[in-house]
Amino acid sequence: MLYNLKDIIRLVDKEDRGIAAFNVFGYEDSQAVIEAAESIGRPVIIMANKDAVNHMGVELIGEIMLHVGAQAKVPVDVHLDHATDMEVIERAIRSGYTSVMFDGSQLPFDENVERTRHVVEMAHAMDISVEAEIGAVGYSDPDIRFNARFTEPQEAKRFAQLTGVDALAVAVGTVHRMEMQKAELQFDRLQEIAKQVDIPLVIHGSTGVADEDLAKLVRFGARKINIGTALRMEFGQTLRRQFADDPKEFDRIKLFGPCMEAVKDKAVQKMELL
Ligand code: G3H
Ligand code: ZN
């Protein structure tokens, strides 16, 4: 069943738990994540990032996610992740995504506020929730040109008040696309932001967070925990093992079966930590 971001977070907020938000890239991982959530009876968020949108278009990946989400026995939010292009956001809203993220983290404060407010106006008119970012969570890949910076609590407070967003991504030490769980987190900063801001906080780049810190993030005020690379690694590594174990196999459905199982197991493990 489909939920928007605001309502799905309200469900986990009541229980003082977090919700996992997984990047997916097609049918196989979307379905695996939904099966994972159903197997433990937890709500879940599935998200299309820029790579998925560039690969197959915002509508097609949206159709896949919306279809599996609507059939699911647990609440599912279908989210557009890290969008910087207004046209893509408008297309996602028209397609029925239940939430969108406008990522203005590389813009000056006032411009980030102005563009985020515009997205909030468009999305809220359709009962679609909006996430935005203040501060900037960087990338481990040095080829990605990006100005990373920590979130300042007072700035986060002003940003939330001025924009009316439903959830706020903050930078407290995570880095996108880490392959090892070695992020050095600033829990004091997170706690201070949570004190100042009364909307749910989002942590990006959570593949790099140690298992015990994932649970701690939630205790210190985070609600939506974004995980992408961990599932991509699981899928890719399992596929590589399949080729090695059975070099004659060419049928993608047979090759993808164990990859879906591996993604499902990893998704369950992450969700249980939250
Ligand atoms: O928005 C997506 C997440 O921040 C994913 O980050 O791939 O480092 O887990 P990750
Ligand atoms: Zn992210």
UniProtKB/TrEMBL annotation:
Active site per UniProt: 81
Cofactor notes: Binds 2 Zn(2+) ions per subunit. One is catalytic and the other provides a structural contribution.
Transit peptide recorded as keyword: no
Cofactor names: Zn(2+)
Positions bound to Zn(2+) 1: 82, 176, 204
Keywords of the record: Metal-binding, Zinc
One family name in Pfam for this protein: F_bP_aldolase
One example of a Gene Ontology biological process annotation: carbohydrate metabolic process
Protein name: Class II fructose-bisphosphate aldolase family protein
Organism: Enterocloster aldenensis
Lineage: Bacteria, Bacillati, Bacillota, Clostridia, Lachnospirales
